[in-house]
Amino acid sequence: MMNDTLDVDNNLTNNASVKYPLMKGRSGRKSKKYNSPPKNEPWFWLTAELINSLAWRSMSINCKKLIHRLILEHCNHGGHENGRLVCTYNNFEDYGLTRNKIRPAIEEAHSLGLVKHQRGERVFAKNQPNSYRLTFYGTDELHTATNDWKRLTEERLISFKTKKREEEEKRKKFKIQQRSKK
Fold this sequence. Notes:
Elements: H1 29-34, H2 48-51, H3 54-57, H4 61-76, E1 85-86, H5 89-95, H6 99-112, E2 115-118, E3 122-123, E4 126-127, E5 131-134, H7 154-181
Antiparallel strand pairs: 1-5, 2-5, 3-4
């Protein structure tokens, strides 16, 4: 019989809310065949700890789209270009983000510890796009993931959201003042 109740050994911080009984019987090559990554197709993995984390669960829809687009870019490079993932605003727009929501989504992903980004610069009158690093994957230089999202606390999340709310209210007041001057 399955235990559906939460207890001390079995809580949400252990990444599983329900312990399942040990399955008995045959398990062999068939299960490996069905549970392995697809052949000749890019794929990615996410840990249960990441998906169950406060950072992942508190992302806005625009932040999720941004992360998903960066994961696709990571797959397109065979998982070897993390830290040098180049994605333009047009790429994000094509994926479904609204252009004026891209910068706030980048800031949110950065504050949640899911993404580190390097702003592009203007070199010889040409714009260089931003480069990104997904913190839950390793890079060629670091070899292991930094997992900055593990450092996120409830207090940091609340302070980030209140700061964003205050900035938005300030921006609205400024727009109203500008309209009244005309």
